[in-house]
Amino acid sequence: MSSIHPDQITAERLAGLRDAPGDYVGPAGGADGSLIEDPAVRAPLVLNDRSFAEVTETVCSYAECGPPKAWLGLITITSLIAAVGTGMILYLIITGVGVWGLNNQVDWAWDITNFVFWIGIGHAGTLISAILCLLKQKWRTAVNRSAEAMTIFAVVCAGIFPGIHVGRVWFAWMLFPIPNSNGIWPNFRSPLLWDVFAVSTYATVSLLFWYMGMIPDLATLRDRAHLRMLQGRERRLTLPMPVGKDIVLPFVPSAERVAAYIYGFLALGWRFSSRHWHRYEAAYLILAGISTPLVLSVHSIVSFDFATSILPGWHTTIFPPYFVAGAVFGGFAMVLFLLIPCRQVMPGFKDLLTLRHLENMAKILLLTGMMVGFAYSMEFFIAWYGGNEFEWSVFINNRANPAEAPYWWAYWTMIGCNVLSPQIFWFRKLRQNPLAIWIVAGFVTVGMWFERFVIIVTSLHRAFLPGEWHMFFPTWVDILTFVGSCGIFATLFLLFLKYLPVFAMAELKAVMPQADPHGGGHGHDPVASVAGGASAGGASASKGVGP
Amino acid sequence: MAQMSARPAAISDDAYNARLEKIASSPEMREDNITLPYAGAMKLSGAMGVVGILGLLLVVIGAFVYNPKHALAAFEVGLFTVTAASLGSLFLVMIWNMMIAGWHVTIRRHFENAASLLPFCCLGLGAVVLIELWGPGREGSGVLLQWLYAEKQGTFLVEHKAGYLNPLFLGVRWVIYTVVWSFLALRLRALSREQDRTGDRWLSRKARFMSGWGLLITALTTAFAAFDFLMSMDYRFFSTMWGVYFFAISALAAVSLASLVFAGIRSMGRLTGVVTDEHFHDLGKLVFAFTCFWAYIAFGQYFLIWYSNIPEETYYFIHRTTGDWKPLFVALTFAHFVVPFVLLVSRIPKRSTLALGVAGVYMLVLTVADLVWIIRPMVYLGAEGAEAGPGMMGWWLDAAGILGVLGIYGALLIRQTASAPLIPTKDPMLHEAMAHKNYV
Do A541 and B28 touch (CB under 8 A)? Predict the structure, then answer.
């Protein structure tokens, strides 16, 4: 292997003996050095030969700098939108669900559409943190933290809607099996109740997973704040203003002291000892093992809300895996939709989230998009094959046929966004182009919202008797509540970007070549890795397996 | 090396060849470690072939002297077990190619071999089609495929589905399945073997490209084949999950077969240091994962039909969960999910050659049981002595059909395995596979 340690390269660079990292474009790896096509070489997961220190510096700098003006402007807007959404919820609670466009026939519409939409968004985070962890997909370390954060925020948004759609919100506690004086229990045989348990379990485990994974990185932030205190580099705490000068707050501890206390509290006494790491790794693996069936169960149970019924368009057996695939699809689209702009504006982001990462995620979009396409076609085929004219009528007369179905545009928006738009990723140039990926991710996000709208509203709006047919039209409250939930999500995500470690630093470093000096096959230097690989193979042979 | 497309090399051919030579000169790569003893393999193959031929002969005799429906069902249980294993292997090869997986390289050759038996499986399916259409069935045509029965013609559902369920289109679809599966399986294996000879690393990229579109059309053809040969036996039944269900059966059958095969090869002292406990650990994880996946899919399908309780769907399960078929249903629930879940969740059995080999055999037996549960109830369904029970008197026919097909499949698989090195010797990710470790 090459005799130069990567950290030595950094040291030489800092001493002016080597070129600045910007000039380095990997070994024939396309635009940013990560798009290596050579089957013999793994693409680097961190670009520009970054050292461990540089990774720490990059990631911590997001949390340690003062709030940028652009960020302040954005969060002002998003929190205003969130406030409007909160206002709509208050208005709904004060007035009643009549402020929505629901009617006797369409008694679920945007509320449950939004619920399923948001719950689905979360699934990419769990897939990345759990399933890709079990599959040892090392590239996940670039996106797992932010995707897991999205999971939490999406579940927050999702939780709102079932809570407020029940009408008398003050009775929502009766969803939980709490003994009460009237002896009224929830209906344990209803999937709607299982949803309460599934979603709350999901929220709990996802939060645990996210938080536990963050502990070492929070400890890094704590230690850095403490170090600045010791070095006398403390800054005054200010009230940041979107425009004009920040207001310096009097009589309060310094920013470093506040950071050290808050991060220190959250880091739970993490000391980077081997014992801590050992337990951390074990706990991480256990949580990954638990989360894997969980990510499948949550959306399967959400699908049971529909599929256990006898309503044409809802009752179909493929719903559980189809919903799970759709959720992962929508979740990855959201991850890409938010991270591609971050990658453009945040310094150093591109070194950690490379074009190869984007390409991998684009491939997952293509794969999961075709999984939902597969499910759509199975549903359509069996709707005909089954010979049930009501089922067929839902597919043709309520959804697909523009001459008959008032919601045909929703159905074809869904097909266009979810099945057709990701097909451009068959072309390498397009799936390696951040702008193209971002546009498709936007389409998919829209398409996945429409998928839930199509499933819910087009199946409901025409019952078996034409006298019961009724269209659904959203009111301004419907619309602003959904927009408000997007505001809540965006606000939480912006807070995360500013105050928490956006990348899983510890995990990221573990997949960098420096972490494996004896070569495991992921180094920049393929010959180095083969030397290590062969010797490790020899080691396992000498342990002796066969007779 | 022919430059057929842009091949932006990241390392020079010299450096790459040096790496190949380094691997080739390592002690694990000596000839007798990575090949099967040819003569011994042929002997075993011959013995299995004899069992297979005797079994199939017995089935043919049974068809004439006992019950043609029962004989065909017995043959189909065996046939769909091996088709599932081969299709699952094809899926896994393509998935690994797509994911640029490293660890799997040393076990991939077996999956290529198993997939390359798809033409044999398709031959079997062709025989089924021929027997159904022109065989010694009831009043001309239709043995197990009820929609071909003369007395069913003109009924509403048969008329409704005639656009899909008709002899000509069934034949056309069989041709499509045969062409698609055989092409993909044989081509992928050919690329892998060509790489053994030439050391051309770009063949891996070629295989990856093929796997992309290959996965898509294999997914579709697998689903429709499952509709055609399994679901439409009872033409009234329909379930959108059915294709996924058969995929779950396939993936599990493939990894179970691989566990058995590698346990056998390792117990012969081959592949030492090449397929290690680490690979067994991961193979065991796949057996475990696909066992759970099967349970998820099977439960999802059953549960949604049970809960909604619509007669046009439930009758299918009522027949299979009550009366004489109930014990098999209960046994499947426990033996196919609960038992392997409990046993395989821990690390120890997955890393043991013996334990995982036994688990592979066990899961293959359960796969057979699953297919028995799907196929066999069709034999005595609404026949002359309607609801005549499972027909246990013909157990010898079932045994002959299953062992017959499995015997011939095993014989062919051993021949395939012995005909080339047990691993892709010049795969660009071989070094990763040989150094593979779990969480250390």
Answer: yes
More confident residue, B84 or B391: B84
Are the C-beta atoms of residues A481 and A88 closer than 8 Å to each other? yes
Greatest Cα pair distance, chain B, in angstroms, is 74
pLDDT of residue A135: 87
Residues of A in contact with B266 (CB under 8 A): 545-546
A238 SS3 class: strand
Q: Report the Cα–Cα distance between both ends of chain B, in Å, rounded.
A: 39
Residue B10 lies in a domain: no
CA distances from B401 to A332, B81, B365, B367, B368 (A): 47, 11, 14, 15, 11
What residues does A239 pair with on adjacent strands? A247
**SS3 state at A239:** strand
What is the average per-residue pLDDT within A247-262? 90
Ramachandran bin of B10, using left for φ above 0, alpha for ψ from -120 to 50, beta for the remaining angles: alpha
Contact between residue B111 and residue B254 where contact means Cβ atoms under 8 Å apart: yes
Spatial separation of the C-alpha atoms in residues A84 and A311, rounded to whole Å = 35
Say which of A387, A526, A545 has its CB closest to residue B277: A545
- The candidate with the shortest Cα–Cα distance to A278, out of B440, B64, B119, B5, is B440
What are the residues whose beta carbons fall under 8 Å from the beta carbon of A215, sequence distance 6 or more? A266, A267, A268, A270, A280
Query: Looking at CA atoms only, how far is residue B145 from chain A in angstroms?
Result: 16
pLDDT tens digits for range A33-43: 788 888 888 88
For residues A247 and B119, the model is more confident at B119
pLDDT at A531 > cutoff 70: no
Cβ-defined contact of B310 to A310 (cutoff 8 Å): yes
pTM: 0.91
Rounded CA-CA distance A268/A260 in Å is: 12
Radius of gyration of chain A (CA): 26
More confident residue, A7 or B202: B202
Structure letter (DSSP) for residue A67: P
Which of B244, B312, B431 lies closest to A533 in CB terms? B431
* Beta bridge mates, A247: A239
Angle at A338 between CA A337 and CA A340, to 5 degrees: 75
Calculate the average pLDDT of chain B. Answer: 91
Instruction: Name A345's Cβ contacts closer than 8 Å, sequence gap at least 6.
Output: A70
Query: What is the model's pLDDT at position A546?
Result: 32
Residues 363-382 of A with CB under 8 A from B: 363, 370, 374-375, 378-379, 382
Task: Please report the pLDDT score of residue A15 as a whole number.
Answer: 53
- Residue among A317, A365, A381, A543 with most chain B CBs within 10 A, to mutate: A317
**CA dist B109 to B17, B93, B116, B354, Å?**
21, 9, 10, 21
Q: How far is B320 from chain A (nearest CA, A)?
A: 18
Whole-angstrom distance, CA of residue B281 vs CA of residue B107: 12
Tell whether B18 is covered by a domain: no
In chain B, the number of structural domains is: 1
Give me the percent of chain B exceeding a pLDDT of 70.
95
CA distance A378 to chain B (A): 6
SS3 breakdown of chain A: % helix, strand, coil, rounded to 5?
70, 0, 30
pLDDT digits (tens, 9 = 90+) for A2-34: 456 656 665 565 555 555 444 444 444 556 778
| Residue ranges of A 335-364 with Cβ closer than 8 A to chain B | 363
Stretch (H or E) spanning B390: none
Q: Helix or strand or coil: residue B165?
A: coil
Interface test with B, best of A32, A34, A36, A38 (most B CBs within 10 A): A38
In this prediction, residues B87-96 reach a mean pLDDT of 97
Q: Which residues constitute the domain of residue B230?
A: 35-434
Residue B278 resides in a domain? yes
* A522 has a pLDDT exceeding 60: no
> Is residue B109 one of the residues assigned to a domain?
yes
